[in-house]
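DM from R.C. (forwarded with permission)

"hey, sorry to bug you on a friday — could you get me a structure for this? deadline for the figure draft is monday and I only need the backbone to look sensible"
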Amino acid sequence: MTKPNFLIIYPDTLGTRAVGCYGNPVVKTPNIDKLAATGVKFTSCTSQNPVCRPSRMSLLTGKYVSGHGLLDNGTGHYPADQLTLPQFLGKQGYHRAYFGKTHSVNRNDWDEIFDLYPDYNHYLQSRNISVKYPEQPPLETICHGYSDIPSKDWATNVLGNIGENYIRERQPEKQPFLLMMSFEAPHGPVTYPRDELKIYDPAEIELPKAPENALDSKPYERKLYMQARGKLAKNDDSLKFALSMYYSMVTLMDRNVGKLLTALDESGQRDNTVIIFLSDHGDFMGNYNCVGKGMSLDEALIHVPLIINCPANYQPREVDSLVESIDVFPTLAELSGNEPPAGLQGESLVPLASGAAKAEREYAFSEEFYGQGPFLFSVRNREYKYILSSTGNEELYHLPPDPWEWHSLINSPEHQEVLNELRQAMMLWRFRAVDRTHQRKVNYIDYLLKGEYDKLPAYLGGPISAKDQLPQ
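My reply, with the result:
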C-alpha cells in the first residue's frame, strides 16, 4: 500500500474567530473554507499552550507542555531527548521539509528547511531590499502597519512559492513526503505590503464589547495585565485598524494555501495527500481592547481551527468532539501504517475523521508558563471551563452563553458541582501530563512489593555488600 503524503498547514496566531468557515462574517478565507467543506472540520480543538514554541513542541511531540518541558518562548532549544513527528516519519521513509517560522526546531529532524528569520532575510538581501524582517515598531498602531517589502517578495508569498515548488517537484511514487508549511502570518508585528490593495475597511470591523466591570471577576494579576495591555490601543479606531490589518494578513495567507492545493491537484498528488490545517494559538482580537496574547488561557487564544482533508478517504463532516493539538502526531502515525510510539499523550483522530466512532475525551487541557507571570492551567468539558493560577486564583466560565469569558462563576452556589468536577479532572490530569517515556531501568517498587529484598541496593534496605561495610 502506498504511504500517504502529509501536508501540515500551520499559520501562527490564528484562532477560530479569524476564519470564515468558523463563523467570522468579515474575513475572507475561501481556500481554508474549501478545505473545511470538503474535509473533516473539528469545531472544538484546544491548543495545549497560547504561546508559539511550547504549542509547536506539543504538536511535534504529541505531548502536553508539562510532558515535553519546553515551557516558554525563551526556554532554550527543543529538548534533544524527545521523539518528534519528523523523526518518527523519517524512519518510515518519508522525505521531510519544513518551510517558515521554525522557532528553533532541530534542523537534524528535517531533510529540507527554510528557516524564516535567517533564510528570508538572506533572500531580502539578495533582492537588494534593505528591510529587516520582522519589521519592528513604530508602526501605525499597536505593532500593526504597512510594510515597504514589495508584495511579490513578502514573506507569506515567498513561503507559498517555496511550498508550491516543493510539491510540484516531488516524485511520490519514489518517496512519500511530510511538508510542514509554517506561515508566520498573521502573527505580529502585522505588517501588510504597502503595494497590495487593502482588503478590509476598518469600519467593517466589529469589536467585542466587554461589560464595564468584566475584569472585576478576573484574578487580580490578570486584571492588571489586561488593563495595561488594553491601554496600548489609543481608541476604537486604532483597534479596528489593527484588526483590519490582521484580517488582511489572514486573507493573504489563505491565498497561499490556494497555491499549495493547486499544486497538489495539478501534480496528481491530491488523492494521496492528507492535509492537516491548524494553528498554534489565537489572538485577543480586540477583547478588553487587546490584541496579541499573554497571561491568559481565554478561548480566543486556545480554541484553534483543525481540519483534516483527504476527500479520497474521508467524507465531509463536522465533528464537535473535544480534541487537542497533541492528537495530530498519533493520527499521522496511524495513517502512515504504524503503531503510534510509546509515550504519546494525544489520541488518534482517525476514528472520528472516518465516522467510525463518536466516543470522545471528556476534557481538554491547556497550560501556560509565560515569562515571570503566574502559571495557568485550564480544563474544559463540552460546556464549562475552569482556570487555575499558580497564585491560587480560580475562574469558571459557562462557554456557550459566555464565549468571551466575561462572567466568572467561581463564586456561584449553583455551579459548585461542576466546579468540583473540573477541579478533580485537573488534579488527575496533572499526574497524567508527566512524561513517562523515560522509565528507570530497575523498578525498585516491584522488588519491594514482591519481597525480593536481595535485589535492592543497600540504601533501600538491601543486603550490605563488602564495599558498603562500615569501618570497624
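R.C.: lifesaver. DSSP finds 13 helices and 15 strands in the chain.
me: no worries. The first strand starts at residue 5 and ends at 9.
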